[in-house]
Amino acid sequence: MIIIEARGVELSFGHTPALRGADLAVGAGEILAVMGPSGSGKSTLLHCLAGILVPTAGEIHFDGRRVDTLGENERSALRRDRFGFVFQFGQLVPELTAEENVALPLLLAGTRREPALRAARAWFERLGLDGLERRRSGELSGGQAQRVALARGLVSRPRVLFADEPTGSLDSLTGEQVMDQLVASARAEGTTVVVVTHEARVAAYADREVIVRDGKVTTLVHP
Amino acid sequence: MSVPLTLLGLLEREPSHGYDLKRDYDTFFGRGKPLPFGQVYSTLGRLARDGKIVMNEAEPGDGPDRKRYVITEQGATEVSAWLAEPVAPEPHLQSVLFSKVVLALMLQRPAEEYLDAQRAAHLQRMRELTEIKRAGGLVDGLLADHGLFHLEADLRWIDTTAARLDALRAEVRR
């Protein structure tokens, strides 16, 4: 079953086209790697799929529902309730503790503080982050911060987790640990993952990969 | 590097004399290791025996070196199949990949598609090795890592080559 799909998506920044008719369908529970050279449009495609950017032509569908025609508030609610995000540089809120960062999506969705923090703490144990709950982002190593960001991306049990270069700022061993946990958690939860990466070692964790070139999607045919 | 298939590929470009074949091979594929004349003629002899090339009549007054070799349909089919088939994704196969890319560009074949097929084969192997690491012990993991890093290096070379295909095409088809 297809959970999220781009059909003929086009998007330009000023006069520069970033996507020129991108087609992509992702199956429910699938882990998909989106590869491609810098500037090929792979992050832009992820932002369109996730309802962050609105394409100038083409359609985005999520779970049988058209996304690109929704208003800003509805797309915002969709992102909060159905999607999770992990970015290259964790992007934790420095003023909050690690557990507050993880609880953030739940708090924004209206969950009360105590149950939200309880749900957040469960992820610390799961990802081997015990004891780091009260630290702030400045007191975490790069790998710890990225695992906290992963917990935040998964805490609301999203249908789709979008990860943009999730190991880009980490050394290869730490990056591997983050990918191991990302994949194991997503499989356990049945979460679909779309991971943008230029690293083959990261793509090797996915079920399959596509390549974005000049704003279009190429699917590799396996021998 | 596969000398018989590379010579066959050069013959698909145009019928040639043995001397010209050796010169083109040394220019594009020799990389400082010229092909001995003896190997050129013994290889051509085997290709002719197997029906992959035919020898035209020697031109009057010329020595044996003036025979022209022409690829047969069987030979051309073999070149096409070889170019399109990904190399087994083991480390250190750059030289075979290199020959395929250069020949594909000379013959105006879809080099980018061949590189994509190779990329898919490499990624599939990397996926298998990653799974071995996830499921197995540290010793298996170490061995898998060795393969992964080499395959990753090959993939970087594939990416860089794919990005330079237009320039390479212009250079090998001068």
Shape of chain A: globular
Strand content of chain B: 5-15%
The percentage helix of chain A is 25-40%
Strand order of the largest sheet of chain B: 1-3-2
- Count of DSSP helices of chain B? 8
* Count of distinct strands of chain B: 3
Rg over C-alpha atoms of chain B, rounded to the nearest angstrom: 19 Å
Domains counted in the coordinates of chain A: how many? 1
Task: Outline the structure in words.
The complex is a heterodimer of chains A (223) and B (174). By secondary structure, chain A is an alpha/beta fold. Chain A has one domain (2-219): 3-Layer(aba) Sandwich (Rossmann fold), CATH 3.40.50. Chain A is built from 7 helices and 10 strands. Chain A has helices at 42-49, 72-82, 98-108, 113-126, 142-154, 172-189, 200-203; strands at 2-13, 16-27, 31-35, 57-62, 65-66, 83-86, 160-164, 192-196, 208-213, 216-219. In chain A, helix 3 packs parallel to helix 5. The longest helix of chain A has 18 residues, at 172-189. Chain A is globular. Chain A starts with a strand and ends with a strand. Chain B is mainly alpha-helical and 174 residues long. Chain B folds into 2 domains: 1-84, Orthogonal Bundle (Arc Repressor Mutant, subunit A), CATH 1.10.10; 86-174. Chain B has 8 helices and 3 strands. Chain B has helices at 3-13, 18-30, 37-49, 73-84, 94-106, 111-135, 138-163, 165-172; strands spanning 16-17, 53-55, 68-71. In chain B, strands 1-3-2 form a 3-stranded antiparallel beta sheet. The longest helix of chain B has 26 residues, at 138-163. Chain A binds chain B through residues 37, 180, 183, 199-201, 203-206, 209, 211, 218, 220-223, and chain B through 85-86, 116-117, 119-124, 126-127, 129-130, 134, 148, 151-152, 155, 159, 163.
Outline of the structure:
The complex is a heterodimer of chains A (about 220) and B (about 170). Chain A is of the alpha/beta class.
Write the layout of secondary structure elements.
The complex is a heterodimer of chains A (223) and B (174).
Chain A: E1 2-13, E2 16-27, E3 31-35, H1 42-49, E4 57-62, E5 65-66, H2 72-82, E6 83-86, H3 98-108, H4 113-126, H5 142-154, E7 160-164, H6 172-189, E8 192-196, H7 200-203, E9 208-213, E10 216-219
Parallel strand pairs in A: 3-8, 3-9, 6-7, 7-8
Antiparallel strand pairs in A: 1-2, 1-4, 4-5, 9-10
Helix pairs in contact in A: 3-4, 3-5, 5-6
Chain B: H1 3-13, E1 16-17, H2 18-30, H3 37-49, E2 53-55, E3 68-71, H4 73-84, H5 94-106, H6 111-135, H7 138-163, H8 165-172
Antiparallel strand pairs in B: 1-3, 2-3
Pfam families (chain A): ABC_tran
Protein name (chain A): ABC transporter ATP-binding protein
Keywords (chain A): ATP-binding, Nucleotide-binding, Transport
